[in-house]
């Protein structure tokens, strides 16, 4: 069985890296019923590339935590956390673009080019290239996916301490059977996304 290719620096190099700073951008939290949306942008240091970068979904939690620290120590990182109020106001598509834009703008170094995970690109001050499945193709996007996911997972674990009935430390706000059952029993919290259909149904069952 052929092993899946790991992300590399091909797309970064095509965009001028390492002579030019190229940022990889990804998000975590598009699908959950609760919690913020988190986007991250990462400009890697070619002389200090953490070993084992990959799509965050393909890594164990322990490995993601290790790589989060390695990336934070060796690369330029920008993070944008968009609260549920903004997700509900903008809708999830536009919220994703806004979070990605915010993450790029939070970088301590302005990129000359950005590689964006997905089909759509936010309006940035630099050129940007969309890459479907980019977190499994470009190292800098893989790094951004790790930063975004670990950041969001930590937030959900903190929220779980205040709202323990919903199992957020385990389900991260996604609509698992246990989460939906808790919604039926206890109702929605301020951290639930009111624009999402399952939450709207609970808040307005006869609408």
Describe the structure.
The protein is an alpha/beta fold and 207 residues long. The protein has a single domain (10-203), classed as Ribonuclease H-like superfamily/Ribonuclease H (Nucleotidyltransferase, domain 5). Helix content is 41%, strand content 14%. Strands 3-2-1-4-5 form a five-stranded mixed beta sheet, sandwiched between helices. A hairpin with an 8-residue loop joins strand 1 and strand 2 (37-43). Helix 3 crosses helix 4 (92-105). The longest helix is centred in the C-terminal third of the chain and has 24 residues, at 139-162. It is globular and about 55 Å long. The model has no long low-confidence stretch (mean pLDDT 95).
| Cα gyration radius (Å) | 18 Å
Number of helices in the DSSP assignment = 8
Classify the fold: give the CATH topology: Nucleotidyltransferase, domain 5
Binned strand content: 5-15%
Fraction of residues in H or I helices: 40-55%
Encode the helix/strand succession as letters. Answer: HEEHEHHEEHHHH
Task: Please write the CATH class name.
Answer: Alpha Beta
Largest sheet: 5 strands, mixed
End-to-end separation = 51 Å
Uncertain residue ranges: none
How many domains, as an integer?
1
- What spatial form do the alpha-carbon principal axes imply? globular
Mean pLDDT: 95
What spatial order of strands do you see in the largest sheet?
3-2-1-4-5
Question: Any idea what the CATH superfamily is called?
Answer: Ribonuclease H-like superfamily/Ribonuclease H
Helix and strand content put the structural class at alpha/beta
What is the CATH-assigned architecture?
2-Layer Sandwich
């Amino acid at each position: 069985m052929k092993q899946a290719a790991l992300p590399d620096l091909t797309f970064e190099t095509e965009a001028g890296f390492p002579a030019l700073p190229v940022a990889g951008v990804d998000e975590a939290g598009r699908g959950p019923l609760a919690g913020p949306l988190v986007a991250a942008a990462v400009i890697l240091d070619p002389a200090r590339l953490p070993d084992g970068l990959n799509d965050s979904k393909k890594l164990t939690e322990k490995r993601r935590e290790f790589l989060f620290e390695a990336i934070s120590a060796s690369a330029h990182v920008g993070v944008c956390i968009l609260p549920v109020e903004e997700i509900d106001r903008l809708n999830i598509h536009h919220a994703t673009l806004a979070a990605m834009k915010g993450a790029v703008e939070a970088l301590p170094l302005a990129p000359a080019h950005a590689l964006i995970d997905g089909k759509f690109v936010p309006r940035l001050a630099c050129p940007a290239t969309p890459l479907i499945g980019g977190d499994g193709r470009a190292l800098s996007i893989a790094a951004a996916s790790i930063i975004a996911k670990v950041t969001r997972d930590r937030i959900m674990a903190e929220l779980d301490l205040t709202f323990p009935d919903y199992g957020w430390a385990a389900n991260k706000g996604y609509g698992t059977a246990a989460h939906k059952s808790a919604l039926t029993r206890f109702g929605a919290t301020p951290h639930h996304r009111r624009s999402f259909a399952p939450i709207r149904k609970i808040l307005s069952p006869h609408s």
